[in-house]
From TrEMBL, chain A:
Signal peptide: none
PROSITE patterns associated with the record: GST_CTER, GST_NTER
Protein name: glutathione transferase
Organism of origin: Thlaspi arvense
EC id: 2.5.1.18
InterPro entries per record: Glutathione-S-Trfase_C-like, Glutathione-S-Trfase_C_sf, Glutathione_S-Trfase, Glutathione_S-Trfase_N, GST_C, GST_C_Tau, Omega/Tau-like, Thioredoxin-like_sf
From TrEMBL, chain B:
CDD domains: GST_C_Tau, GST_N_Tau
UniProt name for this protein: glutathione transferase
Residue ranges occupied by any GST C-terminal domain in the UniProt entry: 91-213
UniProt-listed Enzyme Commission number(s): 2.5.1.18
Keywords: Cytoplasm, Detoxification, Transferase
Biological source species: Thlaspi arvense
Catalytic activity: RX + glutathione = an S-substituted glutathione + a halide anion + H(+)
Length: 227, 224
């Protein structure tokens, strides 16, 4: 069963798609990457994820698994004897990893994304302050979860590293566009160092998009229409 | 932390989120100390200490450490007490399906159906339409199964407790009809099975008390 064909429907720029890609790399699972064209949804995507019609979708022996963090857990459970564990082993640590991953998606990333739509300097400043607040909370979470080790998950990257680290590309693009550092040595010393280690990880490097390429893509998709 | 340490649960008598945790604890036969939290009044120092990020119930305290967010608490209980009354299937694919639908109920169905009951009059039609769409998705997923979990109550059934019990009460309190036996016969049948379960029925809050609470908290002063 574990050796059946694996396909992943996704897009190079999507942080959510990066999550299962990193997980599959950690488990050394080969897969076929089916790139969606920006602006349209393939028949396969619509058929495989009729409820949300969103990427990523993992197809394992043609059976679809949807929702990025759910896919990561699925990968960890299916290829449990291959590579390192992605979820921590202790139930409490697992709960904490899932808690922070949910916080990142539902609070932190939502405020990061709203920087794009903020109108005027005042609103932008307010949203940036909100993101900063969230990042400070995550700095503390890192210290609590890592317990002195290099990653949220301990000695090697895991579920929470992946859940947060996938946003680093977009975080850097936002920093450039807003002229405001969100992660740096003074504000978030632990996370700053963690970010470099994360991006250097062999499971991450091949799938982390180049910041300049992402910035160019962001320009294209967020370009305001001409009046 | 091990199974022997006493569990404390900070909860709210009327909350479907709080009840999710109680249902699982009772199904698994795990003893716990229940502490009622006055969320509409003052948040207790205990709540603020154990859930500083969201300041919401339910919060589970076990061995001095706390876990927040009802479905995460349910997974924690499942991870710690694996053998008694499993809530999640063993197979990784089945587990991913259960997690997907629990998340769908939590993030899409509950809010849509709640908004349809209490949203502004001029948006009523649109909100009800959205609720119908979401409930139809759920109806199709349930199919002819007794429970979402199959023959026994599982993760998705627990996540959907609001649909089985609170939604009918919200409909009565608000006067808005969304889920009926005609439109959603499978969900209706499932609701009856769910609230009829011997363990579940002991946990559910009293109906009239909930109707009164909903009318007082969410109803319009001018509604008939």
């Amino acid at each position: 069963m574990a050796s059946d064909q694996v396909k992943l429907i996704g897009a190079w720029a999507s942080p959510f798609v990066m999550r299962p890609r990193i997980a599959l790399n950690l488990k050394s699972v080969p897969y076929e990457f089916l790139q969606e064209t920006f602006g349209s949804k393939s028949e396969l995507l619509l058929k495989s994820n009729p409820v949300h019609k969103k990427i990523p979708v993992l197809l394992h022996a043609d059976k679809p698994v949807c929702e990025s963090n759910i896919i990561v857990e699925y990968i960890d459970e299916t290829w449990s004897s291959s590579g390192p564990s992605i979820l921590p082993s202790h139930p409490y640590d697992r709960a904490m990893a899932r808690f922070w991953a949910a916080y990142i998606d539902e609070k932190w990333f939502v405020s990061l994304r709203s920087i794009q739509t903020a109108e005027g300097e005042e609103e932008k400043k307010a949203v940036l302050a909100q993101v900063d607040e969230g990042t400070a909370i995550l700095e503390k979470a890192f210290i609590d979860c890592s317990k002195g080790k290099p990653f949220f998950n301990g000695d090697h990257i895991g579920y929470l590293d992946i859940a947060f680290g996938c946003f680093l590309g977009w975080l850097r693009v936002t920093e450039l566009a807003a002229g405001h550092k969100l992660l740096d040595e003074t504000k978030t010393p632990s996370l700053s160092k963690w970010a470099d280690r994360f991006c250097d990880d062999p499971a991450v490097k091949p799938v982390m998009p180049d910041t300049a390429k992402l910035a160019e893509f962001a320009q294209k998709i967020f370009a305001k229409p001409q009046p | 932390m091990n199974q022997e340490e006493q569990i404390k649960l900070l909860g709210l008598w009327g909350s479907p989120f709080s009840k999710r945790v109680e249902m699982v604890l009772k199904l698994k036969g795990i003893p716990y100390e229940y502490i009622e939290e006055d969320v509409y009044g003052n948040k207790s120092p205990m709540l603020l200490k154990y859930n500083p990020i969201h300041k919401k119930i339910p919060v589970l305290i076990h061995g001095g450490r706390s876990i927040a967010e009802s479905l995460l608490i349910v997974e924690y209980i499942e991870d710690t007490w694996k053998t008694s009354y499993p809530i999640l299937p063993q197979d990784p694919y089945e587990r991913s399906i259960a997690r997907f639908w629990a998340k769908y109920v939590d993030q899409k169905v509950m809010l849509a159906s709640w908004k349809a009951c209490w949203g502004p009059e001029d948006e009523r039609e649109k909100l009800v339409e959205e609720a119908y769409e979401r409930l139809t998705c759920l109806e199709n997923e349930l199919g002819d199964k007794q429970f979402f979990g199959g023959e026994t109550i599982g993760f998705v059934d627990i996540a959907a407790d609001f649909i089985a019990y609170w939604l009918g009460i919200a409909q009565e309190a608000s006067g808005v009809t969304i889920m009926t036996a005609e439109k959603f016969p499978k969900l209706q049948r499932w609701s009856e099975n769910f609230v009829g379960n011997n363990v579940i029925k002991e946990v559910l809050p009293p109906k009239q008390k909930l109707v009164a609470l909903f009318k007082a908290q969410f109803g319009n002063v001018t509604s008939s």
